[in-house]
Amino acid sequence: MKPGRQRLDKWLWFARFARTRTLAARLVEAGHVRVNGRRADAAATAIAIGDVVTVAAAHTTALVRVLDLGERRGGAPEAQTLYAALDPPQG
To answer: Is RNA-binding one of the keywords (predicted)?
Structure first.
């Protein structure tokens, strides 16, 4: 992987969009993730800071901009530093 890039499944796991990296890979392979408006077709899709990721999970859809790639899976507060929400507040 090129410097400044990270596998999509790994980033989704670090950012806590999936409980396990395997589930993150399944989310991508099932067609529920887009990167910069294009459907990601492989868990190994490379993402970089500034990319826009859309995740269509079971009960919600998240539209986020990647702020950092992360080095480990930390707690929720740490995970939230990896992205900025772009969707309007729901409610």
So the answer is: yes
